[in-house]
Structures are given as structure tokens and as C-alpha cells.
Amino acid sequence: MGSSPSSSSVVFAVLFLVFNAAVLCHGGKTSSFVRKVEKTVDMPLDSDVFRVPPGYNAPQQVHITQGDHAGKAVIVSWVTANEPGSKKVIYWSENSEHKEEAEGKVYTYEFYNYKSGYIHHCTIRNLEFNTKYYYVVGVGHTERTFWFTTPPAVGPDVPYTFGLIGDLGQSYDSNITVTHYENNPTKGQAVLFVGDLSYADNYPNHDNVRWDTWGRFVERSAAYQPWIWTAGNHEIDFVPEIGETIPFKPYTNRYQVPYRASQTYGKYTPQYKWLEQELPKVNRSETPWLIVLMHSPWYNSYNYHYMEGETMRVMYEAWFVKYKVDVVFAGHVHAYERSERVSNIAYNIVNGKCVPVRDQTAPVYITIGDGGNLEGLATNMTYPQPEYSAYREASFGHAIFDIKNRTHAFYGWHRNQDGYAVEADTMWFSNRYWHPG
Predict the structure, then answer these.
(1) Helices vs strands, H then E, count in the chain
(2) Which of 63, 206, 234, 305 is catalytic?
(3) Which residues of 259-295 are buried (b: 16+ CB within 10 A; e: fewer)?
(4) Which residues of the chain have pLDDT under 50?
(5) Does 120 participate in catalysis according to the annotation?
(6) What is the 3-state secondary structure (H, E, C) of 64-111?
């Protein structure tokens, strides 16, 4: 949990967190679309999407994320199976023949009876904005070449487009989700991922082989554009009964990020103090859009994980309203839901004002935990639909948040059953700072 590394590079800021009006009682729309009831099944280990690249010590599970706060650095990560091999990344811009090198570090870890491959992390710095770069990993053995494009320079009216994925896993439905995202005509330039990656912990002894298969599965996207990570409950991997007492061990070894984790979220803990200091730092004249990612939703009208985010909401929601957060994305609930702009911050123990009310200074809350993992869909909704819930649907999918300028962004949610260009739910966002009406 920390500020997104791409946050000051364009027109937005992204923050991460782990984990006397009329009463709102008559809700918005519950989608009439009914997904065919099917069991969600993980793809077998010999699936083509898990294929190990050919060649001796070939780099695999290649992925990138932003490497600094300004958007001029990228962390390149990969795994080699046979030996550590080269720690170097060779890279060059599309319009230059001059090649540069950066050298990273290699990590390994053990988890119960599993020993990881050689996990490489290398930060390449001093990149130019809005530039396509090629990079090579596996230098000296089996070399593999990939590319990415850096974000544009900071500016209040610079457009930028995010993909939104959560609770992905590695089922057949997960594969459909990634395919739909890849083929969406509105191309995301980076993915905001709201937690729960591999679901390896659903296997006996948290089988870490499923971390490897997941890394190979998402490489087709994550090697070419930054995936900005938020940790979920399935990343904890705390299993004292088999001797695993270090939480988040596989996740932190595999998915490094350019900020120091803020640990727990209780009041006056490092995360609390960090967020208290971080929100006022956001310069909305430079980065107008303020986006927050978390895993457990605060506003959730499904009977799954109901109220689990409440302890966090009562601590932080007033800050989100005060600092005019535009939108909050969460996962955890394996379905889709979008809220109205509401807040529930008026209660002071004696006034009785303890229900959500319409509040145009508040963010929209979107649950996007519908990536398609083996645990299946959350189909059991609360009734009546609360008024804070604008749209909800039990389907798998992904979303796009398309920032146009300092005042407006277009949001669309895509269900997996539709064509690539079809949007099942849409909303025009007006920026809370520059266009609050």
C-alpha cells in the first residue's frame, strides 16, 4: 500500500490500501443478465497458456510495473529455472540504436516443500516520457525481447487509460477475462489490479507451482504494460500449521513495487499514518484524478464478505470525502457493482445519522472482483437493493477507466459473455476537484 508509481506522471493519482437525509432503501439497477451457471475450473498444468518458453534457462513470468513516482522508471521482473543467469536488462528506445544496460538483483525463497526459481528484479531509470522501449532479458543464454511504452509527462489535461482487473486466478474464465481485456478496442495503457492474483493458496499446502503458472499466464499482458498491484487476502500465505509463518512471502518475492509497504491498517499504524500524510500531498492542479485501490469493498450489497471492509471504512472514509477522491476500486467480492456517490460519515454516536446518503463530494465505489477465479461467482445479493447501489451484476469481466482531461473520464465495464467492444455498464465521471457538479 502506497502511492502508485505512475500517479504523478499524467493526470491522476492512485493510492493503495490493503485491505438528516432520506434513508437510502430503494436501489438502482440489478442487471437482468443471467450468466449460465457453470462450475469455474482452473486450467490444467499442461494448458498452452502455462507453457514454459523454450531454450536453456529461458526467462519466464516476465512482468513490469512502474519503478518510480514520476513515471520515468520501470521495474522489470522475470524468473529463470536452471540457474541465476544474467541479472542484466538491455534496453533501448524505438527511435535509437544506442543500447543501455541495467543490473538487478536475484531472489529465491522456499515455501514448505517448494523451492522457487531465480526471481530477478531490475529497475531501469531515466526513461523518456511517452516513448516505446524494447528490452531484453536472459542475456547470455536464451534471450527474450519485449517492449513497453512509458506514460506521458505530467499535465492536467493529458489523457491516460487504465484497465481494471481483480481476483483473477487461472481458470478458464480467467483466460476469457484476459483475452477480453487484450482485445478491448479502448486500449489500456496500464492495469490497476485490485488484489488476489494466483489463488495458489486454494491448493494443498498453498502449492507454489501455481504461482509459477499464473506468472506465465499473465506474461502476455504484464510483460508489455505495467500492472500496478494491490495485495489481497489470497496473497497472505500465512500457514503456521506447515511452518509458514511469514505472511505474503511468495507475493513480496515475486511482485516488487517501488514503495515501502505500509503494513497493517489499524488506527495509528504505519498505514494510517502514511495515508494521513499522503492524501494532502496530491497536487490536483498537476494530477487532477485521485483514484484509490483496495481489496475489500466498503459498499457491497452481496451476501459475500458483507461488511468486511467496515473497520477500514469508519477510519478512512471521511478523508476520502475531504480530499475529494474520484473513484475507489475494490475486489474481494466475485461479482460487479457500482455505487452512487455516497458517504456515511455524519454519525457521531448521539445523532443517529448512521446510513449512507447521497454526497456529491464523495467517490464512486466500484467492486471489480470479477476476474474469474476458481472460487466462482458471488450470485447471492441482498434485497432490497440499497439505494447506494447504482448497478450490480453477477458476471465475470474487466473495466476500463479512460481519462480524457482534467474534468472528465469515461468508465466502462465489460462482461465476458459480450463482444469485445460491448460495454454492459458505463458512466461519465466528473472530476471532484475541477468539475464537482
Answers:
(1) 5, 25
(2) 305
(3) eebbeebeeeeebbebbeebbeebebeebbbbbbbbb
(4) 1-10, 18-25, 261-262
(5) no
(6) EEECCCCCCCEEEEEEECCCCCCCEEEEEECCCCCCEEEECEEECCEE
